[in-house]
Each structure stands twice: as structure tokens, then as C-alpha cells.
């Protein structure tokens, strides 16, 4: 007690100080008290110990200029700023003027204080308490819907709206649609004659077909699709669909019905793409999805040069079943991928019949297994391959992804097919 009285007396010698700033010098001591209560108790203890009149500080605090008298004002200002946004959780942050930080840090150093609390922490806590009392919002330190930044010097409020994430699966029923937006290689999205001034290589993408109605429904600024791998532009995505998480940027509306949103997307996509939305997701699930490794199943039509029977094909495929495939980065993607040799498993491969002179083959493989190259050999860059086993060129004429298993987290995500 004597030490606290001595420290209190020394603090008061610096100039007028409010109870919040005084109490904050011992802000990490004891529990169940606000800093204002600590500061008042320190003044009372000093008055009793020194047998001097207790005096409440009436002058402006030399550290914060009575910042905490404005807590209710800040709460009302934030409430007004939040009006356009549906939300449940918030987090308060602030920018503290350098002079305030320097002033309190000078006291900590001069008096060798061991348990002070920064003004930033108290401001965020007290403003958060005042805000939740009048709005019913909940404070969330990990994944808030909205982050509020209060600029103490200018008394301005900045609203940072965190994305809304939705997990689902998509089916792609039309060839020639890329998974995500591709900027025009010529103009890099600015617009030129090559892209008819759209800035895009392709008129539509799975990302846009899903994202456009969602952006409108959520009053958002953008929607980004994070897929568990991707199929080639000329491949279909069938079966149960490909897992994805849709990241909805700066949504003003969050209280959306996933079923209604799903129906809206499917109606808008006009059977080019179809989706199912499963649950509200988060950034962590995006990372798991992007780093995961899942087996994929494909149905392909293969054209072979020469006169080969169904039994010939089946016999050659037996030489690929359960085999580790060594694949050097395919020539078709070498301009955007590192030139490496990757080892992937061809877990199962079967030929089910002949269609219009072509062989219908199903393949179950590791994520990252390049299917077209498994058939063609890619000029010897993939070994073994169907072409190698047959001793004659073979090529994929159509490719459909018919199954993507649940992803298993690993260190990286490879582009398959």
C-alpha cells in the first residue's frame, strides 16, 4: 500500500490526471475494477494515508484530455456508422495520437511501473461495452463481422467490413467456361480490341455465374471463388460437384437464407452452372480447401491412332492401374507453372466401352494428376502413359470430372487434369 501511495503522489506531481489514466498505471493489478475505480481508490488511499482532503480532479487530464468523458459519444457515432450493415459481431480498434502514447510511456519509464495498461486497450474495451449496451452487437476478437477503427485525433470512425464466406459445391454443365475470371493477356483487364473491350479472355466464368446474383443479394462489392482444385476450361464438372468457398467482399447484408441464395444462383445460371450451398464458412476453411489433397474421378473419351480393340485398351490400362506416374510440368501450362517432375498415383483406371469409335475411360487419381497427359504422354514428359503402353498416339477428346472427394489438408494444391 505504501508503494502505491508513493507512486500515486509522484504521478500527481506531473499534472492534472483523470481517474482513468491514474488507475491505468496499475491497470493489470487486481481484478473486478475499472481503471476509473482504481484511480479513485488511489486518490482516496493517498488522502487517508496523508490525512489530507480528498480532491476530485477537475482540470483536463494532461495525458488524454478527458478522452473517457466521450465514451458515449463514440458509441453513438459508431452506431450511426453501422446502420448500413447487417452484422452480429464487432471488434473495436483505435488510432491513438502519438503525444498521448508518449506521455503515458514516459510515466511508465520514469516510475518503473510494472503493471500499466495502454490507453488503447482501455479505449477499445470501454467503447465496446458502451456500444454493445445500445446495439446488442457482440464483441468477437477472432472473427468479427465488422471491425471499427476510431481515430481519436480526428474523432472519425472507419468501418471495415469483413467478408462473408459460404461453403458449397458446384456443377459445370457447359464446356468453355473457366473456373475464375481471366484477365485479357493483351491489356491485363483494361480493355482492348482483342477482348472487345471487356478486359476478359472469356465472357463468363463459374465464379461470375455464381457471384453476380450473390453480390446483388448481399449488396456486396465482389465475390471470389476458392475451389478445391479446378477443372480445365473444356471439361465438365459433374457428379456431386466440386467443393468451393465463396468469399463475399464487404457485404451490407449478411442475414441471408442459403436456400434462397442457392435458388437465386441456380435460376440465374440457367443450367450452365448449378450449386448447392451447405454452410457459412470462414477464412480457415478456405485455407484448408486450398491446401487440401483429394482424390478425383474422371470420365473421358479417348481417341487412339491405329486399329485397337476394346481388349487391347483394357490390357494397356492394366499397366497404369495403381502405378506411380512421373509427370513433368505439361507443356500446355509450362508458361505459368514451375518446371518440376511430380509423382502422382493413378489409383484406378477402367475402359467401359466404345462410343462413336472412341473409348470411354474412367480414372481415379491423386489430386494434381494431369489426366490429358496421362493419356497422351505429352511428348515423353509423362511416364508411363496410355500412348506409351500402346505404342501409338492417344488423346483425350472430352473430359468430365465426376467426383471430388472431401479434401485432406496438405502443404500445397496442384492443378489437376
How does this model look, in words?
By secondary structure, the chain is of the alpha+beta class. The chain folds into 3 domains: 2-161, THUMP superfamily (THUMP fold, 2-Layer Sandwich); 164-292, Alpha-Beta Plaits (2-Layer Sandwich), CATH 3.30.70; 294-405, Alpha-Beta Plaits (2-Layer Sandwich), CATH 3.30.70. The chain has helices spanning 2-12, 19-24, 35-50, 71-82, 98-110, 119-135, 206-218, 258-269, 283-291, 310-318, 371-376, 386-390, and strands spanning 89-95, 138-139, 146-151, 156-161, 164-172, 222-227, 235-249, 273-281, 292-293, 296-304, 323-328, 341-355, 358-365, 382-383, 394-404, 408-409. The strands form 3 sheets. Strands 5, 6, 7, 8, 10, 11, 12, 13, 14 and 15 form a 10-stranded mixed beta sheet that branches. The longest helix is centred in the N-terminal third of the chain and has 17 residues, at 119-135. The protein is elongated. Mean pLDDT is 92; it is low at 408-417.
Name the features:
single chain, 417 residues, alpha+beta, THUMP fold, Alpha-Beta Plaits, 3 domains, 10-stranded mixed β-sheet, 12 helices, disordered C terminus
Q: Beta-sheet strand percentage?
A: 25-35%
Please, what is the oligomeric state?
A: single chain
What kind of sheet is the major sheet?
10 strands, mixed
Cα radius of gyration in angstroms = 32 Å
CATH fold name of the largest domain, please? THUMP fold
How many angstroms does the end-to-end distance come to?
73 Å
- Helical content band: 25-40%
Helix and strand succession?
Answer: HHHHEHHEEEEHEEHEHEEHEEEHEHEE
Amino acid at each position: 500500500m505504501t508503494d502505491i501511495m508513493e507512486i500515486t503522489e509522484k504521478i500527481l506531481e506531473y499534472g492534472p490526471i483523470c481517474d482513468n489514466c491514474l488507475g491505468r498505471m496499475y491497470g493489470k493489478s487486481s481484478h473486478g475494477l475499472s481503471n476509473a475505480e482504481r484511480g479513485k481508490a488511489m486518490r482516496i488511499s493517498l488522502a487517508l494515508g496523508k490525512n489530507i482532503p480528498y480532491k476530485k480532479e477537475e482540470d483536463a487530464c494532461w495525458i488524454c484530455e478527458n478522452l473517457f468523458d466521450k465514451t458515449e459519444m463514440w458509441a453513438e457515432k459508431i452506431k450511426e456508422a453501422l446502420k448500413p450493415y447487417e452484422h452480429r459481431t464487432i471488434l473495436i480498434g483505435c488510432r491513438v495520437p502519438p503525444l498521448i502514447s508518449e506521455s503515458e510511456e514516459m510515466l511508465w519509464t520514469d516510475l518503473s511501473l510494472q503493471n500499466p495498461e495502454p490507453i488503447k486497450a482501455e479505449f477499445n474495451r470501454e467503447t465496446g461495452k458502451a456500444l454493445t449496451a445500445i446495439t446488442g452487437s457482440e464483441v468477437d476478437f477472432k472473427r468479427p463481422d465488422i471491425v471499427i477503427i476510431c481515430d481519436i485525433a480526428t474523432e472519425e470512425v472507419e468501418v471495415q467490413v469483413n467478408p462473408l464466406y459460404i461453403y458449397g459445391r458446384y456443377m459445370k454443365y457447359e464446356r468453355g467456361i473457366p473456373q475464375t475470371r481471366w484477365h485479357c493477356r493483351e491489356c491485363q483487364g483494361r480493355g482492348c480490341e482483342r477482348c472487345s473491350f471487356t478486359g476478359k479472355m472469356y465472357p463468363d466464368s463459374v465464379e461470375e455465374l455464381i457471384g453476380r446474383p450473390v453480390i446483388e443479394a448481399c449488396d456486396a462489392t465482389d465475390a471470389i471463388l476458392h475451389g478445391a482444385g479446378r477443372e480445365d476450361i473444356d471439361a465438365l464438372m459433374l457428379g456431386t460437384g466440386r467443393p468451393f468457398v465463396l468469399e463475399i467482399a464487404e457485404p451490407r447484408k449478411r442475414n441471408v437464407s442459403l436456400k434462397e441464395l442457392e435458388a437465386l444462383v441456380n435460376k440465374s445460371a440457367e443450367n450452365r452452372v448449378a450449386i448447392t450451398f451447405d454452410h457459412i464458412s470462414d477464412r480457415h476453411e478456405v485455407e484448408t480447401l486450398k491446401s487440401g489433397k483429394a482424390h478425383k474421378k474422371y470420365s473421358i473419351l479417348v481417341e487412339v491412332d491405329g486399329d485397337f480393340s476394346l481388349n487391347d485398351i483394357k490390357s494397356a490400362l492394366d499397366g497404369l492401374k495403381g502405378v506411380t506416374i512421373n509427370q513433368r510440368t505439361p507443356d500446355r501450362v509450362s508458361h505459368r507453372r514451375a518446371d518440376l517432375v511430380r509423382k502422382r498415383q493413378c489409383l484406378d483406371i477402367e475402359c467401359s466401352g466404345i462410343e462413336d469409335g472412341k473409348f470411354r475411360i474412367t480414372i481415379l487419381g491423386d489430386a494434381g494428376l494431369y489426366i490429358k497427359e496421362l493419356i497422351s504422354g505429352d511428348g515423353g514428359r509423362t511416364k508411363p502413359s496410355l500412348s506409351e503402353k500402346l505404342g501409338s498416339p492417344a488423346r483425350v477428346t472430352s473430359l468430365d470430372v465426376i467426383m471430388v472427394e472431401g479434401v485432406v489438408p496438405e502443404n500445397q494444391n496442384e492443378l489437376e487434369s
